[in-house]
Amino acid sequence: MTTVIDASLNEFVDACRRTIGAQYVSTDSQQNAAYLTDWRRRFTGAACAVMKPGSTEEVAAIVRLCNQFKVPVVPQGGNTGLVLGSIPDASGSAVVLSLTRLNKIRSVDPVNNTMTVESGCILQDIQQAAAAADRLFPLSLASEGSCTIGGNLSANAGGTAVLRYGNARELCLGLEVVTPQGDVWNGLRGLRKDNTGYDLRDLYIGAEGTLGIITGAVLKLFPQPKAGRTAMLALRSADDALRLLTLAQGKCHATLTGFELMSEYCLTLVTKHFPQIRMPFKEAHAQYVLLELSDSESEEHANMLLENLVGDALQQDIVQDAIVATSITQSKALWLVREHIPTAQAAEGKNIKHDIALPVSVIGDFIRHTDQLIQKTFAGARMVTFGHLGDGNLHYNIAHPEHQTEDSFLMQQASINRIVHDSVHSFGGSISAEHGIGVLKREEILRYKSEIEMNLMRTIKYALDPLNLMNPGKVI
User: Fold this and answer.
1) Which has the closest alpha carbon to 261: 239, 284, 293, 228?
2) Residues in domain FAD-binding PCMH-type (predicted)?
3) Do both 331 and 374 map to the same domain?
4) Which of 399, 403, 405, 456 is the most buried (most CB within 10 A)?
5) H or E element: which one contains 456?
6) Is residue 2's pLDDT more than 60?
């Protein structure tokens, strides 16, 4: 699909200024720089303007102008994505539509356990608004202080609590969307059952802005847990982590909220670059699990569940050592280790990232098999493996060998991606779990999705966005 620009961009920009106010339309390169460069600073695109509408109606008005002038539009939230999904290409023909002014929490319904929000709301603000109503919105990400709920939904974000609460798709009941033609679909229904036709909500969630622009959402809320308990456990292997997961699910049931796997090298990086964070254990172990329980009964019940779990895991020789947090401060200290892995990895230098999903049962075999393949071809490569083991999502990242420069190692990225992605496919997995496709994996998915599946996706795209104005060049 190609987009033909057949009208004056200056005329288009002037029309947008009249529509939403000149102060919200910027063509200044310095002011726009933050909107044109991705979070990891790997790529800088160009745009004819960056626009900040203040309402759904203004978003729709701009999209109608984009249709009139055949101008592509790139929706953007907090710009925290990792696959270039919210960055325009280098042509300068597109407009970046920043949705950060759509930041109102429209309503909270504690009886229905729902909250209606605009898409530019910061995730952390939504969490806090839920807490103020004695409710929980469980989506939790490292970027929650800056990412927006619209971006979370567009990428179907996961996070650390998917095991219990599901990803962004499971946490959303309804949407408000501006279509590629500039119409507004109001699907803001707080219903858990609505079997009246095609599920349009799920069509837009995870579409990365290629089918329409999410401007509002009805989110699921949950009762606040009565107690939370955290433990970090040391293990010999990822296989033992899977044994621990099975034991924890059997003993703790729905109270098991988080189950994070971290390799020994991950903790080494954290303590190296953040010396204020101490290694939790005196001795190093091959793998670690950070486990979180959220109990709806009482602190005593949560303590009993965790103590029984840890005791049984030690007795069955699944776990080699364990640290159980006895206070909120200790719990936060353990989570700091997990949360600092990405920043420690960045401090160590450039690396090759993979956001993958696998059937939980094969994760141990995948890590062992793929590590061997990588080491056979790239001896000394450092494996930074961590992620949400409970839902099968691994961040399988690879840092350059100490004897090799970063740049020379990064030149091998295509070969490394092929090893990893082919291995993921052979184990029945997906090359994107929660980061999306964007630009970086657009060509990769052609190797692993059938032509039938790709044609179905193209058919939907053509039907809804025949002019290819919605985030062109992303996903397909």
Assistant:
1) 239
2) 43-224
3) no
4) 399
5) helix 451-464
6) no
